[in-house]
Design brief:
The complex is a heterotrimer of chains A (about 450), B (about 170) and C (about 230). Chain B is an alpha+beta fold and about 170 residues long. Chain B has helices spanning about 15-25, 55-80, 95-120, 150-160, and strands at about 5-10, 35, 140-145, 165-170. In chain C, strands 8-1-10-9 form a 4-stranded mixed β-sheet. The chains are: A mainly alpha (about 450), B alpha+beta (about 170), C alpha+beta (about 230).
């Protein structure tokens, strides 16, 4: 259905270079509006966080026994979004899937930014956030090391490894593009690109090293990405709380992360296609492939959700059944079935029926999936904590306060701002990877 | 002592480059004297211009070193401030194996990156005097370093192999 | 031989009067919450009296259960703390070090008894109650977790006084505030390592159970209740 569109691989190189480098220069009024509005939202979020630091965690909706709420949901959500880049880049790079080429950089950028945002939440949710560095192992006057047996330390090391890896993974293929951008540019940009490209000349030694490094990094980053979300899941699964203490949580969270990451990627790609006029580069072919992947992940997600809940239902453990009941037929049931609807039913119809599958429906399904995955994390975190093992201690009244909502909104705004800045500084499609390769054998 | 000269030649065809490299090596020019410049990676069949790499080995070594060091450090720290928490062993595979894994992976990442910077020559002190050709789009430039006495012979080889242009340049 | 402090609570004697709760507040400088805070689940009581109802109206029986930190031997709250703010001391107490706490909430989430309390704001006391603070106990700042300590300040003083007198700590010399104030004498505190102590004998009783024992947390609080 997309074959009548001219294949981007056949476009002349000059045009590709021009098309992809053009959005970098010049500030339009539209761009300024697009960046200032989210900055205002971030400022409100900053004010909310300042309030929380000044007065204490009491300004949130948290209460005994629901000690984790929106912040932990945000944390899991954003770390989940960050899995977009790794899946698309690493898996498709390792399998040499040609259609990945215009998508990889957009996806890798999502990874880095989502990690930066998600990585803030373990700090934001702390009772005494100004002492977050006490989790780091450094020689200190307290003559004390952190407790490496705590899953929070596992989390810290995993996220450090993942941030480092994904920044390098984003940076490496940027080097040749920046070397090109350093020529014929405004003075400060030329200087920036020149420094960042480390004096890249395009010699075959450099190309060999780059390609080898990317292959290796793709393998490593894949292993790290899977472990990161597994460890996020283990923050819950290591606790003996009902319906958290589950062996399936690791893979369940990884699947959910990739699922929401792909949905995020779909939205971002549709946005840059429209805003930057890249219709020739991000074609229906790419969206079609992404939609199929999304459909696959939706089915996998349903499988895991079913497996998790059926095991609990059949096992009929009293304390777990209380949580199961709260999720499926009591206080949280509306959210639960809404989640199943937007995470499975909607994508299955919109993306599964070929006649309905196009960019617009893909974006609609993706927005639903992001919402559904946010709900999923909420449904994992809150019902369990609301129903502890001693029934007398249970609670039914957690709801996020304006502080939590403002900070959550600020993270979405933060993603937009970071992405807008990135797209002004660097070409959102890897030019050297994407342009026609007359010297490659397979094309 | 004969002075060093650089020959910058431009090609449009990958096979021609391969032929040129083959003939140059037959005439005694070493691999380290030949450099290709292009705007995208150029891949040859094995045996044309192999650039052997130890990057995988470096990654594995980096992984072992950082993973081992981190594990040793965790063990030291746990015993240095030995505290009973929940009856868990002070140091055990199950308690901190995840950290060993993550640091092993971080070691591989860092080693790969550092080794990339080294192997690509980006941070290594390079021959600053070598002229770098400006590569027109869809062209491949071949730079050959030779002593001034060999310039004529090498130029002939390049032209025979199908170079569009050959330029002689002295070191900067 | 090291001490191993434990408690026994005779539920058949407990009347649910909550004198223990009031005594604990006074002894341990626990902040007093307003009705609004109580409505949003922000109360702090290191010991609380849980109520369970049996039967249907009008034939209802209320059962009371004072729940405090169970001082588990294998406490789930301890290993999850990244900063060692909670750990096991040599006398088997589950200790909370306020100054080390950064407030990750993880310990509270992993406590099956929900007996950990958080300082949502800096603590306040209605006038003139700020005048009766116990000088032996630190006041906790906003952002840290706290919980029952088995009145560790009383344990320390009891050991010091015994050492000054040159005698071992006698059974019953050390009493946490809740035990001291229980009018029904339902609560007993003592050394579980001393087989002759009252708490050891009560722990051996056929009526004794431990709360959520099946989780393997090995609590040191024993509940005594006749079989039904």
């Amino acid at each position: 259905m997309y074959r009548h569109i001219k294949q981007p691989e056949l476009l002349p190189y000059g045009k590709i270079r021009e098309d992809l480098f053009r959005p970098l220069s010049g500030l339009t009024r539209k761009y300024l509006f697009a960046i200032i509005a989210p900055i205002l939202v971030i400022l409100i979020g900053g004010y909310a966080w300042a309030t929380q630091l000044r007065y204490g965690m009491g300004v949130t909706g948290l209460q005994r026994p629901v000690f984790w709420g929106f912040y932990i949901v945000d944390f899991v959500f954003w770390i989940g979004i960050s899995h977009a880049g790794t899946l698309i880049s690493a898996i498709l790079r390792l399998t040499d899937a040609g259609w990945r080429k215009p998508i990889t950089r957009a996806a890798e950028a999502i990874t880095v930014f989502a990690l930066m945002i998600g990585g803030m939440f373990p700090i934001i949710h702390l009772g005494r956030a100004w002492y977050f560095y006490w989790l780091m192992p450094y020689p200190n006057s307290r003559l004390l090391w952190p407790n490496f047996r705590s899953p929070l330390l596992w989390d810290l090391t995993a996220i450090c490894a993942y941030v480092t890896g994904s920044v390098i993974f984003l940076y490496l293929p940027l080097i040749p593009d920046m070397a090109q951008l350093a020529e014929h540019n405004t003075p400060w940009r030329a200087k920036l690109y020149h420094v960042l490209s480390l004096g890249w000349t395009g010699s075959d030694t450099e190309w060999h090293a780059l390609e080898r490094a990317m292959k290796l990094m793709a393998g490593i980053i894949l292993a790290v990405a899977i472990s990161v979300h597994t460890i996020v899941a283990w923050d819950f699964a290591m606790a003996i709380a009902p319906m958290w203490h589950s062996t399936i949580f690791g893979p369940y969270f990884v699947v959910g992360a990739i699922f929401s990451g792909l949905a995020g990627l779909m939205i971002v790609m549709a946005a840059i296609r429209k805003l930057m006029g890249l219709e020739l580069y991000l074609t229906r072919h790419h969206f079609n492939n992404l939609a199929k992947l999304l459909l696959l992940m939706s089915i996998l997600w349903l499988y895991f959700t079913m497996a998790e809940h059926l095991t609990v239902w059949y096992g009929n453990d009293p304390s777990e059944m209380v949580v199961f009941g709260a999720r499926t037929r009591a206080r949280f049931s509306t959210l639960f079935w809404l989640m199943v609807f937007v995470n499975f039913v909607v994508p299955f119809v919109l993306l599964g029926i070929r006649r309905l599958r196009n960019i617009t429906t893909g974006v609609i399904a993706s927005v639903g999936i992001l919402f559904g995955m946010f709900l999923e994390r909420y449904i994992i975190v809150v019902p369990t904590l609301s129903n502890p093992r001693l029934p007398a201690a249970s609670s039914t009244s957690y709801a996020p306060s304006w502080v939590e909502i403002a900070i959550t909104a600020a993270t979405f705004a933060g993603m937009i701002v970071l992405y807008l800045i990135f797209s002004k500084l660097f070409p959102i499609i890897a030019v050297w990877e994407f342009k026609p390769h007359p010297h490659e054998d397979e094309i | 002592m004969a002075s060093t000269m650089y020959l910058l030649s431009e090609f449009r065809d990958k096979e021609a480059v391969a032929g040129a490299i083959h003939s140059l090596r037959a005439s005694g020019v070493g691999d380290s004297d030949i450099d290709l410049f292009s705007e995208e990676p150029v891949e040859f069949k094995r045996g044309v211009l192999d650039r052997p790499s130890q990057m995988s080995l470096a990654a594995v070594l980096g992984a072992i070193v950082l993973g081992g060091a981190a594990t040793a450090f965790v063990r030291f720290a746990q015993y240095n401030y030995a505290v009973n928490t929940g009856g868990m062993p002070t140091f055990s595979f199950w308690g901190t194996g995840v950290i060993t894994y993550e640091m092993t992976m971080l070691g591989a990442v860092l080693a790969t990156f550092v080794f990339f910077l080294w192997e690509s020559g980006l941070i290594r002190k390079r021959d600053k005097t070598a002229p770098v050709p400006v590569v027109p789009p869809e062209c491949i430039c071949l730079r050959v370093r030779c002593v001034s006495g060999d310039v004529v012979k090498a130029t002939a080889i390049l032209q025979e192999s199908g170079a569009i242009s050959v330029e002689k340049k002295a070191p900067l | 031989m090291a001490h191993r402090w434990g408690m026994a609570i005779d539920l058949d004697r407990c009347t649910g009067c909550e004198a223990c709760v009031a005594a604990c507040h006074a002894e341990n400088n626990i902040s007093i919450s307003t009705p609004e805070q109580a409505a949003t689940g922000r109360t702090t009581h290191w010991i609380r009296v849980d109520r369970y109802y049996e039967g249907t109206f009008p034939d209802v029986k209320v059962k009371y259960m004072p729940v405090l930190c169970q001082q588990c031997d294998e406490a789930p709250c301890e290993p999850v703390c990244p900063t060692y703010a909670t750990y096991h001391n040599p006398e088997g107490l589950n200790v909370q070090v306020y100054n080390r706490c950064v407030g990750t909430f993880y310990c509270a989430n992993n406590c099956p008894y929900t007996v950990r309390y958080f300082n949502w704001f800096d603590p306040v006391w209605p006038e003139p109650m700020q005048l009766q603070h116990n000088p032996d106990v630190a006041v906790r700042m906003a952002g840290v977790m706290e919980k029952c300590t088995f009145c560790i300040q009383r344990i320390k003083r009891g050991k010091d006084e015994a050492a000054t007198a040159g005698q071992p700590v006698a059974d019953g010399d050390i009493q946490p505030a809740c035990v001291q104030s229980c009018p029904a004498e339902a609560m007993v505190f003592g050394d579980l390592n001393d087989p002759e102590s009252k708490v050891s004998r009560m722990a051996e009783s056929s009526r004794a159970t431990r709360l959520l024992e099946e989780l393997g947390t090995k609590p040191k609080v024993f509940y005594l209740e006749r079989g039904r």
